[in-house]
Structure formats: structure tokens, C-alpha cells
Amino acid sequence: MRLSEYLSTGGTGVIATADKDGTINTAIYAAPHVLDDETVAWGMTEGRTYRNLQENPNAAFLHRAPGDGAAGVRITLKLQGIQESGEILDAIRARARKVSGSAAAEMVRYVGFFKVVETRPLM
Q: How far is residue 72's CA from residue 16's CA, in Å, rounded to a whole number?
């Protein structure tokens, strides 16, 4: 199954990052925008995930598909860059506005682009 198919099912996602000292943070995140099978993008606020990625470009994302069982995917990631404007950020804000409202959409200040290093099934 292609990455975009895994992530288009809805469900719950958790991103994990660590700062330069290795202190780990996890956060609930929506499924990323899949740009191709090797590149995904997320909108980010000024939170801990964003700050950790400034110090350590490595991250992991776990996505559990809805329903019974353990359908989903684990993705190992490496940050390629962060932008403060552009079409992808606009699309992420528009999706956030529909799902969570205008206030939440306005908190999304950045879009992070990640190389997909590895994908593995959830189980």
C-alpha cells in the first residue's frame, strides 16, 4: 500500500521529536500532506515539536487507522526544511480551519518538509 493510502483513512497520529539533549516530546498531529512517496509536510505552531526540530532534524510519526485491529504505519522522518509561507502552508491552514476553526488555523505558522526515511507497519 502506498503511503498516501495509509494516511487517507482518517485515524489518529502522533509525532515524536527530541531536542539536542535527547529529551523526547510527543504530540497529536493530523496526517501529513503527502507530496510524494518520499516527502511529507506538516503545519506547525511555535510549540515544542517545532523547537525540537530546530535542534534535531530526526522525527517519527505513528498513524493508527480507525476501526478494530492495528492497521496503520510507523514512519521515520528527517526534516528537510521549514517555510513560513507558500501554497502548502495555505492548504494546511485551510484544512485546519475546516476541522478546528479559525483560531487554530491562525496558530499554524510554519510548514515542515520531511524526507521519509523508512515506513513500517504498525504491527
A: 16
Strand runs (DSSP E) across 1-123, as ranges?
Answer: 12-18, 24-28, 33-36, 39-44, 58-64, 72-83, 110-121
Q: Distance (Å, rounded) from C-alpha 81 to C-alpha 69?
A: 35
- pTM assigned to the model: 0.90
Which residue type occupies 113?
F
Return the C-alpha cell found at 66. 480507525
Digitized pLDDT (tens) for each residue of the chain, 123 residues in all? 577 777 776 778 999 999 999 999 999 998 898 999 899 999 999 999 999 999 999 999 999 888 777 788 899 999 999 999 999 999 999 988 998 899 989 999 999 999 999 999 888
Containing 91, the helix (H) or strand (E) segment is: helix 87-100
Which three-class secondary structure state does DSSP give residue 28?
strand
CATH number for the region 3-121 comes to: 2.30.110.10
Which sequence spans correspond to the domains of the chain? Answer: 3-121
